[in-house]
Amino acid sequence: MNDEQIKKLTEYYGYTISEVVNKVLSFYSPIDDIENYIPEGNNRQIAELIKFLRSCKGSSLKISSTIQNPYKGQVKGSNLSFNLNDKYTLFYLEQLLNTILEKNQDGLYQFEFNWNFKEPIKYYKGIAPCYEIEEDSFFTEPYTDEELNNIIEYEKEKESNQPKLTQNGKIGRTCYSFYKALKLQGILGNNKTKDYSFIYDILVIRGKVNDIGKGFSGTIGKEKYQNIRNWINAYLTQSGKTE
User: Fold this and answer.
1) Where are the alpha helices (H) located in 78-144, listed in sequence order?
2) Cα–Cα distance for residue pair 119/50, rounded to 1 Å
3) What is the pLDDT of residues 97-145, one digit of tens each?
4) Angle at CA 108, nearest 5°, toward 9 and 97?
């Protein structure tokens, strides 16, 4: 989400631009498709793939699938396979998955399991005894097998308790979470038409809904309010929650 667009939108609606606003917006904005993630980035599958790679360490990895976007000479729907046997590529693939998992969970597992955050990987630079210990600028420490098992079980339980939502319900979940977070921080006021219109325009910036015009007054504000209200009601009904 474009920070400058958010700033201009916030100014237009007359809300306070502060660290609180920035923190709340940054919590939701990096998720490219928030209404479709259950859970974020599918951490369970990432953890399972890391364990899979560790189980197969020392042997080649065969990847097979069905061609959906054929290049010249390929036939859509036919099978395609690839053998990956370079140990360095496999090593860095596992490091990348561990790093993605750490960045994805963003403190959730530290809260749930009382874990420390993963530190950057440290490596030796130079020749002994004249070497320095430096931190990697990207990769983080890998998860242990026990940690991965805990993550997999936690995410499985999380998925099993996740309500089945329609597309309107998924959008409503985004709107509801966003509204409650902003309301909790005292950012929004008591004018729901204005507040819901602001949330609607956030979705416009994210390319999730049609731009029906600027502002929150008149028929434009009424339509924005009704859309957000209907989406939130769909989420509350489908999830069994109450406002």
Assistant:
1) 87-105, 108-113
2) 18
3) 999 999 888 778 888 888 988 888 887 777 767 777 788 888 999 999 9
4) 95
How high is the pLDDT of residue 37?
39
Nearest partner of 96 among 35, 36, 142, 27, judged by Cα = 142
Write b or e for each residue in 26-46: b if 16 or more Cβ atoms lie within 10 A of its Cβ, otherwise e. Answer: eebbeeeebbeeeeeeebbeb
Contacts of 174 (CB under 8 A, 6+ apart): 28, 34, 35, 203
Neighbours of 149 (CB within 10 A): 13
Question: Domains of the chain: which residue ranges?
Answer: 3-37+163-239, 40-116+142-160
Residue 229: DSSP 8-state: H
Helix (H) or strand (E) segment spanning residue 7: helix 3-13
Return the structure tokens found at 35.
């209404």
Q: What is the pLDDT of residue 26?
A: 54
CA distance 38 to 40: 6
Q: Among candidates 176, 188, 173, which has minimal Cα distance to 20? A: 188
CA dihedral sign, ordered 49, 55, 61, 64: negative
Model confidence over 27-37: pLDDT tens digits? 454 434 433 43
Six-digit token string for 139:
């990769």
**Which DSSP string corresponds to 143-200?**
PPHHHHHHHHHHHHHHHHTSPP--HHHHHHHHHHHHHHHHHHTT-S-S-HHHHHHHHH
